[in-house]
Amino acid sequence: MARIPGVGDSLGPYRITRQLGAGGMGVVFEAVEEGLGRRVALKVLAVQLAEEPEFRSRFLREATVLARSDSPHIIQVYSHGEHDGVLYLATQFVPGGDLAARVASDGLPPADSALDLAAQVASALADAHAVGVVHRDVKPHNVLLRAGQDQVHAYLCDFGIARDDESSLTSSGVVAGTYAYLAPERFRGEPATAASDIYALGCLVWFLLTGRAPYDGGPVQLATQHEFSPIPQLPGAPAQLNAFLRRAMAKDPAARHPSAGAAAAHLRAIRAAGGLPSGQFVAPPQPPVPSYPSSAGSAGSYPPAPPTSPIPSVGSHPSAPSYPSAPSTASVPQAPPPQPVPRPAPHPTPLMPPGRDEPRRRTGLVAALVVLAVLLGVGGGVGWSLLRDDGKGDGSTGDGGDSPSAAGSATGGSSPGSSDSPRSAGAPGPIDGPIAPADVNGDGFDDTILLDDLDDETVVLLSDPRSQSGFGAQQRWSTSAYGDALVVRGDFNGDGWADLALAEPGLVRVAASNGARFSKPVEWATPDLPDEFRVTAGDFDADGQDDLAFLTGAGTGAISIEVALADGTGFRTPESWAGIDGWTYEDMRIGAADVDGDGRADFVEMGQPPEGGIDIRVFASLAGGTFDANRGWFSARDWSWNTTRIGLGDVDADGDADVVALRDFGGDGLGVATLLSDGTRLEEDDEVVIGDLAFDRTRSVAGDTDGDGTTDLVLVDRNTAEARRYARTSDGFTETGSTSVDAHVDEDGSILVGVSR
Q1: How far apart are CA 438 and CA 702, in angstroms?
Q2: Are 441 and 452 in contact (CB under 8 A)?
Q3: What does the alpha-carbon distance between residue 46 and residue 521 come to, in Å, rounded to a whole number?
Q4: According to the annotation, is 392 in a ligand binding site?
Q5: Where are the transmembrane segments (predicted)?
Q6: Candidates 2.40.440.10, 3.30.200.20, 3.40.50.970, 1.20.1250.20; correct CATH number of 10-92?
Q7: Using CA atoms, how far apart are residues 373 and 368, in angstroms rounded to an integer?
């Protein structure tokens, strides 16, 4: 009869020297390979499980999974097999222990080192996702460390519960993973994806910076908090760091980083920007568990989570810390400033019933019941593992290279779960909502970008809802207004900050935001475009990176719409997604936004029909890389095309983009009409007239300037250089604040940068 070996026994060529850890699924040993004399981590599957076909498949698949990757941050597999009825897996051995044990013994690393470790883990995930593997259990115990000359190297281990894209081993509905690091959709029984790994990475970053998981409590409490509690923020931390946490830990998988590679790049950009404290952050108190109304209408709530024991900081132990610390002059922040409100998920979650008239939080009790059903219906526990180390570290890791893998390693077309769905693991969908963002610094508020043609510079009027005007500082972000290029905004590299795309007939460049300024423009494409064209930005393929659509056909009596998809470092060659004979280029104004709520930006056109007035037509984006036949969504025969401009944004926070139309009311002022989308058409909801603004003397741009999930308007009076903020209320758009703009707004070449030119 097969039996688990012990210390002193041999298993094939491996002589066992000591036990490192044990759990219900098996045992991990340190062993020496005879003949070579090298130390290995030897995982052995429990005998009773080795007799079950499903567990045998899982165990052997771990070896295949790891063998597929040559990542410097994933352990190397030496061998695997069966000996005397016992299944084993031999991997490289790393003596440094796991991250949880290191923090417990040495305290927290400096913030810069913490982000370096997190970026290495993100790179490991990117490499795993690139070969079609989702880890499913990212947590401190599964990050092993080895001291290097200049940095601590991190290795992601224990892929024993990882699910191969081609596997159906989790079809039984078992929820694998550790509660404190489990994405909210996983508690609902949804399959693990690259996006759920990214959520766990965000939780890991919080642990590295604070010494605790973002939420605490029992299984149901944790499920409730992951689903409904605010995303935690670090008081006084750089805006880019809190923006990373908001994005990586977004409740909606579609709102997270488009790939683990993009998350790694975001972390490295935060380090490069500087401003991190030399010590540790002061974590805010744990939030209470949210309360929900019971079905009878009485108030009901879960008990608050128990307090978390504090983790000692570096320097509180006699032994010297083993984390290298980058020089920094920043002090540790103490008093928390007012925190921005995180944007809501842009689309209904699977718990939301069909229809858009119910707020997401009405399902709180339902969510808790669903979570409880999932937890109790899978055999009495969350997850299975080849080994449960119980905090002792399993030693199952290996050496690797000194540098993280390339940031784009998971974005080159081989993403896991690739399918036509925008919700697939490799293509989690739009970032912050149905329209390209204008948030240049990652604080959660869309900003106002102005090209000053006379001074040849680009200025940004930051949004600050804490101020009386709703505006913050005005800053110069570039010493160029980019000449004759058509400039549109969007997050083209997927890092969470709004960038600028500069389009010319034979050249498209991107001036990327680093959170403090726009970088020097870099060539992204050399498209073959005519001298006259129009351009708009939107995420047409739902990969989390905004793309460009070009309208051409001036003077030809026919139009063509070509789309250049972004891949994070460039735009692909534009491909024709639509073409129509008989349409007049000169009678079209364009935009891009997700008006039908499927996660992909659509091409929106306002035209001038032969019978007069205006009509708005939509070319819906399809999963195959084309547009559907255009359909009429709105028409108004009494409107004038010459004196109507449209803006796009989610006015009612339902996940679909709506249309805001500015109209010329002559001496009566500027009209602002709201056209709401129901996913298939637009319907006029209200219209207000601003008496002291004139249509031809007002510049406009739409964006969510206060981070509440609804689109606001910024109108700049060319006569007075005054910027006004308008938020939509029950009475239509209403002014909420204003400020002076120190720029030449009346120059013909001075524009507010939007999603279209």
Answers
A1: 9
A2: no
A3: 57
A4: no
A5: 365-387
A6: 3.30.200.20
A7: 9
Q: Which amino acid is at 437?
A: P
Q: Is residue 288 helix, strand or coil?
A: coil
Tokens 């959170």 belong to 515
Structure tokens at 642: 């010459």
Length of the chain as a residue count: 757
Q: Please, what is the end-to-end C-alpha distance for the chain in angstroms?
A: 75
pTM, to two decimals: 0.50
DSSP labels for 125-191? HHHHHHTTEE----SGGGEEEEE-SSSEEEEE---TT-EETT--TTTT----S-GGG--HHHHTTPP
pLDDT digits (tens, 9 = 90+) for 605-620: 999 998 999 999 999 9
Q: How many CB atoms lie within 10 A of CB 485?
A: 22
Q: Which two tokens stand for residue 115?
A: 């982000």
Residues classed as catalytic? 137
Domain ranges, ordered by start, for the chain:
10-92, 448-752
Residue owning tokens 């009773």: 48
Query: Is-contact 643 577, C-beta < 8 A?
Result: no
In angstroms, the CA 718 to CA 228 distance is 44
Q: Report CA dihedral (707, 708, 713, 719) to the nearest 10 degrees.
A: -60
Q: Give 645's DSSP letter.
A: E
Alpha helices in 79-133 (DSSP H): 99-106, 111-130
pLDDT in tens, 355-414: 333 333 333 444 444 444 444 443 322 222 222 223 333 332 232 332 222 223 222 333
Q: Is 430 left (phi over 0), alpha (psi -120 to 50) or beta?
A: beta
688 DSSP assignment: E
Are 739 and 464 spatial neighbours (Cβ–Cβ below 8 Å)?
A: no
| pLDDT tens per residue, range 622-645 | 988 999 999 999 999 999 999 999
The region that residue 101 occupies, defined by phi over 0 for left and psi between -120 and 50 for alpha, beta otherwise, is alpha
Q: How would you classify residue 516: left for phi > 0, otherwise alpha for psi between -120 and 50, otherwise beta?
A: alpha
DSSP for 407-470 reads: TTTT-SS--TT-SS-TTSTT----SSSSS----SSSSSS--EEEEETTTTEEEEEEE-TTSSSS
- Residues with Cβ within 8 Å of 213's Cβ and at least 6 positions away in sequence, in order, are 180, 181, 203, 206, 207, 308
What's the CATH number of domain 448-752, 2.60.120, 1.10.540, 2.120.10, 3.30.70? Answer: 2.120.10
